[in-house]
Structure formats: structure tokens, C-alpha cells
Amino acid sequence: MKFLDQAKIYIFSGKGGHGCVSFRREKFIQYGGPNGGNGGKGGDVIVEAVDNLNTLIDYRFQQHIKAKNGRPGMGSSRSGAGGDDVIVKVPVGTQVLDEDREHVLADLTEAGQSIILARGGAGGRGNESFKSSTNRAPRQFDKGGEAEEMTLWLRLKLIADAGLIGLPNAGKSTLLTAVSRARPKIGDYPFTTLYPNLGVAQAGNQEIILADIPGLIEGAHEGAGLGDRFLGHVERCRALIHLVDGTADDVAADYRTVRGELRAYDAGLPDKLEFVCLNKCDALNDDLIAERRAELAAEAGCDVHVISGIAGKGLPNLLLLLAAAIRDGSVDASLDIGDDTTDDTTDDISDDGTDVAMEADANAGWQP
Questions:
Q1: For residue range 216-241, what is the model confidence (pLDDT) as tens digits?
Q2: Of 205, 184, 148, nearest in space to 16 by CA
């Protein structure tokens, strides 16, 4: 299934049915009186967040969404049938914006949450509704209410506990593969990841949802590379895992580049809790690890976690810290989880960095 995180739709509610002008005419019954029924209400257009959806691809091909019109009233005091509602099913985390994409009309963050986008027209009254002691044979009736129509944008922002950010080839997809059952595409060239991926990692008895987004390069906020549009998928995250390639020539410059793009995008991302990680330490000796860790810590102004996604080094410790931070809202420096620089690869981690138990069910992960 192709991933699509925004779509333009045109919605039309149903028109209300007209009221009816009718009089009772039966043999041997004098002065039957008015008996025109009311028109039915037009259908509404409703947007609803549902589980088991992770893309807006359906609305690439079905952009025009129209509810049914109400039926007109009939004689013998028969009211017209109401028009059927149309439910626009979207993934959890979808926002509904106006045509100019300046105002958020709805933000659906929970399954089952719904909102009426366009209300159907009211049904018109038939002439029976106008009868009175002084108006015995009314010929008035109401027309059905007009439909509402509008152009809207749907924008999906994935809901995750933590987001993986960094330059292209920083090892984000490899880390996601190592700690979850997700199987994103991995390659030794930039921009292997073209759309976000989600994975569920286990830290003790706590599950953590991780979002892997395409890499950022300098000038992404101006459209360079894949741009910064995918940063919207980590806006809802409570923490960011910032991966820096330890084999790069200048780890401090790489860190500055990504932080600069976060500041240009803003939306509160620069203020989020951040875990800075020096990745690919399996390709470095101890002296080089210490040197580059010190450089990165001086630039970031915080502790740096030394990890290796492919070898599994430092990942259990990182996940425990992340789980505690998500649970408590801050990093607990007193948490005794060992030294990141030690090889804490568990028996469940194979030589290529993937989870042996997870490999048996590679398709169980949720991938857009």
C-alpha cells in the first residue's frame, strides 16, 4: 500500500427534500383537508478516525464525496426519506484543514472520534404543517434546505512516542529494524527512506512507538532533498532520537545541520526532549569513539549515547531511558542502566543487528 500523508477532497452534503402540497380526496369524505408531508433531511458528510488505516491513498482516486439528497414529501401525510450520510474514514492522527491550509478545522487523535464537516439541508414543510383554525386549506410549502459544499485538505500526522531524525544514511531505518518488527527499506545510499515508517519497540514491560522519517539535509526547509514536510510526523512525538553518523568527518557539523532545520520548521520541535546518539560505533575504535563523542557532546550540550544499530550495542539502554523519559516527562539521570559504551548486546540480537525472534514474523510490523 502506497503511503500518502495529504490529500485534497471536495465534499457536498445532501439537499433537503421539498415539502408537498396535497389534499385528502376520498369518496364520501367532505373537507378532507391538507395532507402534504414534509421533505426528508439531506445527508451529512462526516469524517471519522478509524484503526487499521495508515495512509490517505484512498482519497487520491476518490476526491469528490457527496451525500444523498433528502426525498420530497408526498400526499397522505407521508414524509420523504432522509438522505444517507457519507463517512470519510481516515487514519488516527489526521487533521482537516480549509482550502488555504491556514486553519485546522478538526484534529482526530483517537479512534472513533468524528466530526460533521458539511450538514445536509433541512427538509421542507408540507402544507399540512401550515393548517390552522383560520387557514383550513393552506397551499404554502417550504423548499428543502440547500446543500453545503467545500474544498478541504486532509493531512496525516503519525502518532508515535518518539521520532528518529538525522541526516540521510545516519542509520535510522537500521535502528528501527533492530528494535522492532518493522522492515523499512535499507540501503547504502542517501534517501533510501522516502516515506515515514512506524515500529513498536519493547523496553521492559513498556511498548514504545517509533517513527522513522526521511533524512534531512541543509536547506530542507527551502525544499532541498525531500524537504521538511515529513517533520510533521514527529510533531506529536514526546521525544526525538537524533542519530549522528559516527563515521562522518565532522559530527558536530552534522548535528548543527539537523538542529538548524528543526529551528526553521519550528512547531515546537526544537524544544522537545532529545536523545543525541552517536551511531555506527561498531566501525570505530575506542579512541575515535571517545574523541567524536566529546565533540558531539560539546556541540549538543548534553550527554551523548554511543550506539550501533547494526550490532545492537547500546540499544537496550537507550530504550529503557527513552521509556522512562516518556513515562515521567523528563530524563532520569539517576536511572542505573549501565554504560552505553559497553557491549550490551543481548542473546536476542543476532550478528546482523536484527532481532532473531522478530525475524520469524517479519511481516507483523505495521508499515505504511
A1: 888 877 777 677 778 888 888 889 99
A2: 148
Q: What is the CATH number of the domain that holds 53?
A: 2.70.210.12
Quick one: CA dihedral 110, 358, 212, 254, positive or negative?
positive
Cα(251)–Cα(246) distance, integer angstroms: 7
pTM above 0.85? no
Enclosing domain of residue 266: 162-364
Instruction: Please tell me whether residues 85 and 179 are part of one structural domain.
Output: no
Q: Is the pLDDT of residue 297 over 60?
A: yes
* 210 and 252 share one domain: yes
List Cβ neighbours of 207 (8 Å cut-off, separation of 6 or more): 200, 201
Separation between Cα atoms, residue 44 and residue 210, nearest integer Å: 36
Closest CA to 142 of 45, 43, 41, 68: 41
Q: Which residue intervals of the chain are DSSP H helices? A: 58-61, 172-179, 251-265, 286-300, 315-328, 356-359
Residues 137 and 212 in one domain: no
Tell me how many domains the chain contains: 2
305 bridge partner residues: 277
Neighbours of 135 (CB within 10 A): 12
Q: Are residues 329 and 210 in the same domain?
A: yes
Provide mean pLDDT across the span 111-132: 93
pLDDT in tens, 62-108: 999 999 999 999 998 999 999 999 999 999 999 999 999 889 999 99
Here the cell at position 330 is 523528563
Work out the percent of the chain whose per-residue pLDDT is above 90.
44
Q: Please, what is the angle between helix 315-328 and helix 172-179, to 10°? A: 90
**Residue 236 and residue 292 share a domain:** yes
Q: Which amino acid is at 32?
A: G
